[in-house]
Amino acid sequence: IDAVVIATPVKSHFDLSVKALEAGKHILVEKPMATTVEEVEEIGRLAEEKNLIAMAGHTFLYNPAVRSVKKISDAGQLGDIRYIYSQRVNLGRIRSDVDALWNLAPHDISIIQYWLDEPTIVSIKRTGMDYIQENIEDVSFLNIEYPNNILVNIHVSWLDPNKVRRMTVVGSEKMVVYDDLAENKLTIYDKGIDRMAVLGENMDFDNSGTFTFNHRSGDVVLPKINWFEPLKAEISHFVDCIQNGTKCLTDAKHAQKVVKILSST
Predict the structure, then answer these.
(1) Are the CB atoms for 40 and 33 separated by under 8 Å?
(2) pTM score
(3) Which pLDDT belongs to residue 191?
(4) Is 250 exposed, middle or buried (0-12, 13-18, 19+ CB in 10 A)?
(5) Over the range 167-205, which residues count as b (16 or more CB within 10 Å of their CB) and which as e?
């Protein structure tokens, strides 16, 4: 046995990861990799020391729609990213080992970190409530501020009437909606509000009073995506990292940043 997949209750991830690494096994650990930043750091340190792969199961980073948004953004089609908001809600499934934030938000956090090239964080604020089980929040709203005035809002819940898996990225040039439940998973909107200088005497482009605003509404594009199964791609990447030394996309360093955000609330 060369590698082990750890898909167990979150509290057991660290101990099982350490045992597997000490036994000389590569590991793929379901999200979140561990419950504290220190535990993820130790997993990463041990994996590096033993020249083993320690990979987190952030499956959505292997989703072709998520990767397409990354390509669109990196190509500058969206302009400057202004804000991102996501909803990952449903009625159930209720868990007792973690709350809704730790259960659902790792997906959205890992995706947003990937889209934004894992920048530093200015501030984090969490608001939530435990309606069903004491001290286990069923609903949470996570607000993150990134550099360059990028705002992020993540809404997760076990108590919503409908299942929603949607993320919206608003840029200065275009906007994109990623809906994981829709047949067309990506929709690009050529919409925005542009400032236009008011022609006249004594024009001053530094004075906001000399501008008017143009509401732009252009084409709506449903880009074709060459679909492949994300979990299959994740496993293939895990094997590739082991056999060929490929750099792991969701290694312990990536997992550590996700857990740090979850732990900072």
Answers:
(1) yes
(2) 0.89
(3) 84
(4) buried
(5) bbbbbeebbbbbbbeeeebbbbbebbeeeeeeeeeeeee
Which amino acid makes up residue 27? I
Side-chain-side CA neighbours of residue 201 (13 Å): 0
Residue range 76-131, pLDDT digits in tens: 999 999 999 999 999 988 998 899 999 999 999 999 999 999 889 999 999 999 99
Point out which residues pair with 55 in neighbouring strands: 28, 251
- Amino acid present at 154: I
H/E/C letters for each residue in 61-109? HHCHHHHHHHHHHHCCCCCCEEEEEEEEEEECCCCCCCCHHHHHHHHHH
104 near 90, Cβ under 8 Å?
Answer: no
| Burial state string for 38-52 with b = 16 or more CB within 10 A and e = fewer than 16 | ebbbbbbebbeeeeb
